[in-house]
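Predict structure. Chain length: 127.
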Amino acid sequence: MIFFDGVCGGCNRFVDFVMWADSRAEIFFSPVQGETAAEFSLYENVPPREWKIAYVDENGIHEGADAVLLVLKRLGGFWKLPALLIRVPRPVKGYFYGIISRNRYSIFGKRHTCRVPSPEERERFLP
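Prediction complete.
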């Protein structure tokens, strides 16, 4: 499952990409602002500026660059190639991801409301 900022333009584009590339339809999605994220206590009492994409798999919760790269790895095929960046030291990945994450609204835009999945997408989204 991927937890994403439901009002972030870049986060929503990443969700669109994963839905397109996930031919097995095995990855699910939930906005950080939703009930499912609250059940995981994700980013409770953390200001939105500090939120990161999170990915939950059989090995636990991964955040930021590691989350994105592990999702690419899971997608397989060509996407395993950029996923090799997982080997870059975490502080280096975290530094660059942090810059983008903290400035995501000015870079990618911000919606007024969380993403509303289309009827075709609905089965892959949790509240």
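Summary: The chain has one domain: 2-124.
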